[in-house]
DNA sequence: GCGTAATGAGACATTACTGTCTCATCTGAG
DNA sequence: CTCAGATGAGACAGTAATGTCTCATTACGC
């Protein structure tokens, strides 16, 4: 079948999100290839999971790049980053779900760089008076990703329309759900 | 060591959040008991995981009860439920992390009941004009739990002070992070 | 059509975890 | 103190997954 690494990684990701304990056999079948080929492409399960993590980080990093978060007001930057993040929420989700990835130094470092970029934008937004000062910047940053992941799950489970997701995340993040400012 | 089931479940939960693939051996050591005793307390790994899920649901359910979410305005109800949820965010986290639990009918059903209770409060809040109507109730409900779990992670990793967490979640949820209503 | 490379199917040994067992030791009630 | 019950340490077989291998078949460039 489709033996290109892109497809394999995508299918493997999709499966591992649902069943993190899936065996190589299941992963291979999900990707439409044999277990032998999967082993030829990746030295072992660890290597595969690390490749998935690296790929996920590439996607997230590219999304943040595409959002040009360093340009313009922080609130608009956050809207853009959410817009870019939602289509790849699955990749973001696996970075959250597969805690084993945090123990890979390179992956953890790469994640830290992404987190720091968003964090810097948040702090800038606070300094510019665009974002609230009474919430820790680290928490706002965490919320951006948490909400994106949560919305991704909701979309996958059919509780939230895909086209509603980006606006839903951005509106909730920036404006909150209350009609009177709490 | 401490052989009461309460401690064992708590330690097992704490470990499985970090390493969902942990072996019975690791779990026993983390709980300070021998693998033999762990097997005497729970018939097997499945039984242990299901017990953890059931315990987690009890905690979450008790938290929602304690918050009396059906009383008073919805925004205040959400603040109370966040206050009650944060101390047990780890239990909430494992319900999100251990996807295997969703496949246990009783646990999934119990979770649905909790989700529905919060969802009903959200819809009531929208009908009362307290919560925004332009965000799906299901998404707001999802966000409550997503933010609580995310804040729990941030607290565990030292990125957010524990005492800041409840207010941080409630403020972000209800008021958003922007200084101008977005 | 030919030949090289890649794939699929499956055998195989190895490893890791599980679940059960025994037995020595410890603990606590009477 | 004594004894019953609980625990810890570890042996043991069974099982599932891994990683490596071979070989037949397929796909593809020439």
Automatic annotation (TrEMBL), chains A, B:
Residue ranges: DNA binding: 23-42
Gene3D superfamilies per the UniProt record, alphabetical: Tetracycline Repressor, domain 2
InterPro entries xref list: Homeodomain-like_sf, HTH-type_TetR-like_transc_reg, HTH_TetR, Tet_transcr_reg_TetR-rel_C_sf
Top-level division of the source organism's lineage: Bacteria
A Pfam family recorded for this sequence: TetR_N
Domain HTH tetR-type: 2-60
Keywords of this entry: DNA-binding, Transcription, Transcription regulation
Keyword Transport: no
PANTHER family linked to this entry: HTH-TYPE TRANSCRIPTIONAL REGULATOR BETI, HTH-TYPE TRANSCRIPTIONAL REGULATOR RUTR
Protein name as annotated: TetR/AcrR family transcriptional regulator
Biological classification of the source: Bacteria, Bacillati, Actinomycetota, Actinomycetes, Kitasatosporales
């Amino acid at each position: 079948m489709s033996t290109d690494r892109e497809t394999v990684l995508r299918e493997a990701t999709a499966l591992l999100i649902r069943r993190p304990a899936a065996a190589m056999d299941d992963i291979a079948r999900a990707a439409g290839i044999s277990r032998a080929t999967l082993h030829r492409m990746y030295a072992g399960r660890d290597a595969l999971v690390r490749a998935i993590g690296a790929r996920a980080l590439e996607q997230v990093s590219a999304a943040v790049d595409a959002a040009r978060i360093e340009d313009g007001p922080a609130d608009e930057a956050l809207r853009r980053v959410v817009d870019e993040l939602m289509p790849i929420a699955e990749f973001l989700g696996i970075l959250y779900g597969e805690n084993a990835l945090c123990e890979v130094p390179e992956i953890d470092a790469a994640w830290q760089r992404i987190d720091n970029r968003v964090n810097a934008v948040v702090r800038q937004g606070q300094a510019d008076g665009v974002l609230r000062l009474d919430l820790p910047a680290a928490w706002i940053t965490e919320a951006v990703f948490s909400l994106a992941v949560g919305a991704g799950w909701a979309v996958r489970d059919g509780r939230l329309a895909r086209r509603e997701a980006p606006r839903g995340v951005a509106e909730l993040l920036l404006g909150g759900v209350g009609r009177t400012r709490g």
